[in-house]
Every structure is written in C-alpha cells, then in structure tokens.
Amino acid sequence: NPNAPGTVLAAPARAAARAEKFDTAAIQRQDTAHYMHPFTDHQALGGKGVRVMVRGEGIYLWDSEGNKVLDGMSGLWCVNVGYGRTSISQAVYKQMETLPFYNSFFNTTNLPAVQLAAKLAEISPPRFQHVFFTGSGSEGNDTNVRMVRRYWDLLGQPARKVIISRHNAYHGSTMAGASLGGMDGMHAQGGLPIPDIVHIGQPSYLESGRGMTPDEFGVAAAGWLEQKILEVGADKVAAFIGEPVQGAGGVIIPPATYWPEIQRICDKYGILLIADEVICGFGRTGRWFASELFGMRPDLITFAKGVTSGYVPLGGVLVGDRVARVLIEQGGEFNHGFTYSGHPVACAAALENIRIIESEGLVDRVANDTGPYLERRFAELADHPLVGYADSCGFVAGLNLVKAKAAAVHDHELFDPALEVGMVCRGHMFGNGMIMRAVGDRMIIAPPLVMTRAQIDEMVALIRHCLDLTHADIK
Ligand code: PLP
User: What family is this protein classified in (predicted)?
Assistant: First the structure.
C-alpha cells in the first residue's frame, strides 16, 4: 500500500530509473519549444539539444543517454550530502503524508519549522538564536534588505539605508538580490541596481594585488570599504554584505587579513555585517558557517542550498541578537514573509540533511581529512602548462588557465578573452564525464562533501585529462 505511513518509495523509484530508456531527441524538442531556462541564451544554442539529466547517486549523475558524470559542482553548489539519500526522501514523504503544508502566519507554527529553527540556533555561532525562513537565497537577501532598513528605522536612524556590496558578487536574481550582486551583465538588464545599493572592488589578489603580498592586499582591499563609507557618509550606511568566499564570481578566496579588517571597519562605523553563506554554509569550508573560519562576526547570515542539500527549496536568514532584539522587542509586526516561509516539507528535509551531515562527520572531514587532501591534490594541477594558479578552501576550489606562465602570478600571460578558453575546457569536461564550471578562464569546482579520497583522485585525473585536451586544442 503506497499510502501506508513510512512506506519507502525512493529506492524502488531509483532502481526503476536505472532501467528506464529515454527518447532524448523528443525531450530536447519539447525543452526547446517550451522551457525557458535560467541564465541561458536559447538562440545561441542554435537548436542544439541540451543535456537531459535523469538520475543521481552519490557524487555521480546519469544523463538520458546513459552517460555517467562526476558532479564537481554539487548541482548548483548545493547537493552537499550527495544524490540518492533515501532517508531524505523518506522524511519528505512522511511529512507530506502528515502535514504537507501549513503556514507560520497568524500565530501558528509547524513542528519541522520549530525543530529546524532550534537546530540552526544550535549549530550556528551562539549569538544566532533566531531564524527567518524563505524559499530561496534570493528571498533571504531581499529579507536582509528589509530587515536592516527596519532595524535602523526602529533605532531612529532612517537615513541609514545604503548597503555596500562588491563587484562580481552574486546574491541572487530578485530585484534586491541582483542589485546587491555586482554582476554587470545582470545590472545591464532592467535598470539595476535599485537605489541605495553601491559596490566596491572584490578581494581578488590575482586581479588587483600586483606589488603586494596577499596579506597586504587583504588589508588594502578591505580599505575600499572605509573609502566608500566616507564617500557615502557613515550616517547613511546600513550594512555591508559579502560572501565569505565569492562563489559564482569565480571562487574568489580572500587573503586571511581581509575579513578581520572588514569586521574592524564595520565595528568602527557601527555598520551591520551580512554574511551571504548560501554557498559557504553547511560544511563547505570545513565549518558549519565560513564566517567562523574567516574571523567574521556577522549580524545576519543568509543561507539556502546546503541547508537541504537542494533536495527541496529552502532558504532564510539567521538573525543575530543585535538585530533580533530590536526587531522583536521594539518592532511590533514585521510586515514581511512568504507563503513558504517555514514550509514543513522543506524543513523536514533540512532536519534529515543536517542529521546526515552530523552523523557522517562531514564538516570535520572537510576540515581535517578530505578538504586538506583536495587542497593538496588540486594544488598539484598548477604544474600543468595551462594552469597559472590553483587554490582552494575546504570543498571549493578554482584554477586559472593562462597562455604562458611567469615566475610571479601577476606576470602570467593571459588568453585573449574572445578565445573563450574556459568554455573550451568546460566543453571537454562535459564531454568526458566531469562537471566543472568556467568563469572566464577560471575553472571552478564545489564537489559534494561526501566525496572520498579515491573519488578526489578520480576527479583530479579527469580534470588533468581535460586540461591536456584543452591544451592540445589551443596550440
Ligand atoms: N547568494 C549566493 C552567494 C548564491 O550563490 C546564490 C545562488 O547561487 C544566491 C544567493 C541565490 O540563491 P537562490 O538561487 O536560491 O535564490
């Protein structure tokens, strides 16, 4: 009886999918005819069918043609516990059978949302005792904008509206998310950013650190924040937002001096600090939250992705005591919320996902075992003639493709961007069973945290093979 409580459908469903045959061309025709994909130039596809993913297990995916692919990107930086976790599908099924939906408006709550809020308070730094749930990371960042403005209004400083962010940051695709982000291509469409959001440079040592040590550069790059605060007027600045490690911008790992200096500057001017941990949270850098690794003391933390390992959508904001106290004790009703804030099914998935992360010691593994191993194996790729620089932080890593190497990283000769060497390399990866993303000529990975040492070896060998193919191509 499939309706009996506790019935496990997931494993048989996966077994059936293993045997299923697909008409790829028909799926592709339907896709082209009807499905408008996110961040996709449909015209440029020129009618060429896109790849159809049908199944996932552990760190691997299978497409409709039966090809096996090593997913170096955890889907979209989210499948932290890997694919095919029956206990998550079971938790979701059980919750759907019991209470598929109820909202948290109008003085009501639901069990998984309460339990998850308490669990998040337990695993985050002690000053985070409250959480606001959303359906995505973008909605989390929209929530941040409304929260920090409300906070300063309540403190009698309504002029503090400006939020400072960084060029090349990614904070989502809603109007506020895309405005907080610093992607030129996004700002160019639709008249963004919205007012009162301004940007400073990103802490990219490769891009801007010439003539400095990484540590000197970290302090210098943080200094751009102070310059911007003084330019805008300190009494007008509400908050600074940043990803501890910029993800979509190309895995920009800041020098160790950067965040402590940013923190000092925020403290000096009384400005709120928002850590966008949508990618970095839930173990990716070897801590529950990367803020802990980088010496940040954020007032708000945006989360999504890894909270459910992407099995179902969920996001939110961890609200630190400084903000929570003012909003709760002085604010009355906060006129903000989503139908799916605290969705019971999503929260049930998150609780099981966090249980898996804990029981398998994944955060500790990334910190002390597989993370350092990945760092070592990935760094070895720098001996490849195409690789000018390779670095990593826990389970995010990137390498830069260069035309000719010099002794100092700032002297490498770069490729003509028009050659799109990164995309050539990505094509080889895709064609050879490896998903690695290209941001310009920087190739990046963020693999599932369950990846073993043997699988890291397998991945590094695949990457090296595809680098060889790329090298042969462009010679
Ligand atoms: N913030 C960061 C750092 C992200 O990487 C993303 C998505 O990639 C977002 C926010 C937006 O999250 P979502 O796509 O769930 O809205």
Answer: Belongs to the class-III pyridoxal-phosphate-dependent aminotransferase family.
